[in-house]
Amino acid sequence: MKLVLQNIKELVQVENKARQWVAGAEMAKLATIKDAYLIIKDEWIEDFGEMKNLNPDAFDDDDLIMEIDCRGKMVFPCYCDSHTHLVFPASRETEFVDKIKGLSYEEIARRGGGILNSALRMESISEDELFEQSMARINEIISTGTGAVEIKSGYGLSTASELKMLRVTERLKMNTPVKIVSTFLGAHAIPAEYREKRGQYIDLLINEMIPVVASEQLADYIDVFCDKGFFTVEETEQILMAGMKYGLRPKLHANELALSGGVQAGVKYNALSVDHLEFMGDAEIAALQGTETMPTVLPGAAFFLNLKLSPVRKMIDAGLPVALASDYNPGSSPSGNMNFVQSLGCIRYQMLPEEALNATTINTAYAMGISDTHGSIARGKQANVFITKEIPSYAFIPYSFGFNPVETVILNGEII
Questions:
Q1: pTM score, two decimals?
Q2: Is 75:390 a contact under the CB 8 Å cutoff?
Q3: Are the beta carbons of 309 and 348 closer than 8 angstroms?
Q4: Cα-trace Rg, the chain
Q5: What is the pLDDT of residue 58?
């Protein structure tokens, strides 16, 4: 089967030679082709270029061909959302009201809210119901242009509930066209019953949860919330080393609430990404330079919680790559809309539209470990693209916050 997208107003984020990520000044550059075509064969991108160079031989008689006229419309690679908690049991709008009344994130957590609230609800929800709720969220993010997503556990905080979340994620992998990677985040918080015996919970993580997760091949990565009021650097290192013994590469929640040492711990253990990064000093930026660790900022969480902003401009000017992800979760970022994430990147972090697009496609693909196949339009990559409605330019996407520019989504070469 061939799809031939013709008369594309502008084909965005094209690469003749695929890159792993984009960093520093290169983030402000974006390759596009105006009046373009794109040929998709089966699941893969076969060719692209200017319409005037479209080869009639591309229309091979042996292939079933569908032509799509994209006149006035633009085509983008689908977003890669490299940090979500999309599998959760219920919304938490009552805590939203508490925040309006002036309670802090830490105060809500101490009252049994936050992560512990979701963990309590996770115990009682059935796996089937959790799957159905999560599938609805998957369909929601597809409709706004996301074609790949990382999903973390962490609302279980017991062996049975963590496994429930991870098994639901596996079911999602098998029942949706979206590319999904899975991360074990049993170290998301200390359960209430272990508050006075933290060491016992860490032992449970290391000696029971991680071996079972690994033996059932339920996770691609391991994560720890290394921050003030959650896990210390020493505890984080213990947990990461245990996961690494089972082949789970680290990803890290770091420096959302304080200069926690999480960035340095992530670099030390070659984390694929360190995420949040509201608190970043010169030492943290220097630690990331020359490493394989992707700094990932979560604008939705900072917006929703009214946190200080990560110094994105300073990081880019220092030559670092930056990724932007949604942090879709019920407590601190109840949205998986990556178009809005781009808007926040431009409006609140002073990113150029080109930088925001690089940060939500190629750089987030790297932060998921899939930049070889996703995150840009390149020959041989997975055919995950979306066609916009008629829009004037790619800058219109972050400019028009709240508007969904996506008209058609193509995943794995099939129109969704």
A1: 0.95
A2: no
A3: yes
A4: 21
A5: 66
User: The tokens 């008369």 sit on which residue?
Assistant: 7
Q: How far apart are CA 332 and CA 353, in angstroms?
A: 25
Is the distance from CB of 327 to CB of 298 less than 8 angstroms?
yes
173/160 Cα distance (integer angstroms) = 20
Confirm if 317 and 280 have CB atoms less than 8 A apart: no
Closest CA to 26 of 367, 357, 373: 357
pLDDT in tens, 349-360: 999 999 999 999
> What residues pair up with 323 in beta bridges, in sequence order?
296
Domain range 2-77+376-415, CATH class: mainly beta
| CA–CA gap between residue 411 and residue 264 (Å, rounded) | 37
The two beta strands, 65-69 and 73-77, are unpaired
Position 60 scores a pLDDT of 63
Eight-class DSSP state of 278: S
Residues of the chain whose pLDDT is less than 50? none
CA 316 from chain center: how many Å? Answer: 19
Cα–Cα dist 223/367, whole Å: 13
* Domain-wise residue ranges, the chain: 2-77+376-415, 79-368
CATH number, domain 79-368: 3.20.20.140
SS3 content of the chain, % helix, strand, coil (to 5): 40, 25, 35
Kindly state the tokens that stand for 94: 């009552």
Q: Which two tokens stand for residue 283?
A: 């030492």
